[in-house]
Amino acid sequence: MRLIIEADLDYHLPEPADVLLQVEVAAMADQRIEAECLQVTSPLPLAAVAAEDGIGQRCWVRGDGRMVATYRATVVVERLPIDLATLPATPVRGLPAETIPYLLPSRYCQSDRFEGFVRREFAGLEGGALAAALVAWVGGALDYRGNASTGETTALDTFASRSGVCRDYAHLLVAMARAGEIPARCVAAYAPGVDPPDFHAVAELWLDGRWHLVDATGMARADEIARVCVGRDATDIAFMTVFGAATLNAQRVSVRRG
Q1: Mean of per-residue pLDDT scores for the chain
Q2: Is residue 206 domain-shared with residue 140, that is, in the same domain?
Q3: Residue 151: burial class (beta carbons within 10 Å; 0-12, 13-18, 19+)
Q4: What is the bridge-based pairing of β-strands 57-77 and 226-231?
C-alpha cells in the first residue's frame, strides 16, 4: 500500500523556545520511505535525535515568533493483516527484556487499575484471543467524540466517560492489554480514512514474538498504517512538544492512498 502524506503546522511562539517535533515516518522493515521532505522555519539548524526504542526520530527546532513546519512523504507499507485471535500467549517470564517496560503502568495508562476488570470480564482468555476481545470491547464501548477529552485525560477517565478520540482509544486498549499480561505500546501514525483527518494514535501489542498494530477506533487497517514513533503513552509520541508557550494558527494533515 502506497501512502501520500502531507502535514502542515503553523504556530506562533510569543517568546523564543525549543520545540521537539516528531512528524517524520519511521524507516522500518514493513514501511519503506520512497521520498520525504521536512522543512521548518527556525533560526537554528534542525538537530535530529533518536526516538523511543530507536524507532523514528525527533527533531529539535528553535521557535521564535511564527513557526511553520511542512512535511511531505511517500511511503510504501508492506505489512500483511493478522488475525490476532490465532496468536498464542507468551508467559511474562519468557518475554524479551525490551518489552518489559510495556507491561508496566505509565502516566496515562494505569494498567494496574484494570487488572480486576480484565480478569473478571475476560476470564479464561489469554494471548491473541484476549487481545482480539479487548480490541472489540474498546471499539464497542466507546463513542468517538472530538470534544470528549483533553491532553490530561487518562485511560481511567476514558473508561469512566466511555468516549474520546483516537488517543483515548489507544490509551484504554494499551492499559487493558498490559493488565492482561500483554506488552502494549502507543503508536503515533499516519493512516488514510481517519475522520477528521489528523495525526493518528493506535496501539501495538506484543504477541507471538513480534509487535502487531491495532486501531481500536476501527478507522485504520494494520496494512495501511505508517508508524511515526512508539512509546509508553501520549507523553512519548506527541507530534510536537514546546518547551515554552505556543498558539495554533493552522494545522492540516492529509493521507491518501497513492
Answers
A1: 97
A2: yes
A3: exposed
A4: unpaired
Q: Please report which confidence band the pLDDT of residue 230 belongs to, taking 50, 70 and 90 as the band edges.
A: very high
Q: How many Cβ atoms are within 10 Å of 20's Cβ, its own excluded? A: 17
Q: Give the total residue count for the chain.
A: 258
Cα 69 to chain centroid, rounded: 20
Q: Kindly report the number of other CB atoms within 10 A of residue 120's CB atom.
A: 8
204: amino acid identity, one letter: E
Q: Are 178 and 92 in contact (CB under 8 A)?
A: no
CATH number for the domain including 144? 3.10.620.30
End-to-end CA distance of the chain: 8
Q: Pull the grid cell for residue 63.
A: 521557535
Mean pLDDT of 21-43: 97
Q: Do the bridges between strand 2-21 and strand 240-243 make them parallel or antiparallel, or are there none, so unpaired?
A: antiparallel
Residue with cell 500483554: 182
Beta-carbon-side half-sphere exposure of residue 132 (alpha carbons within 13 Å) = 12
CA distances, 57 to each of 63, 69, 166, 240 (Å): 19, 15, 22, 12
Give the range of the structural domain holding residue 103, as residue numbers without chain letter. 84-237
**Other C-beta atoms within 10 Å of 33: how many?**
16
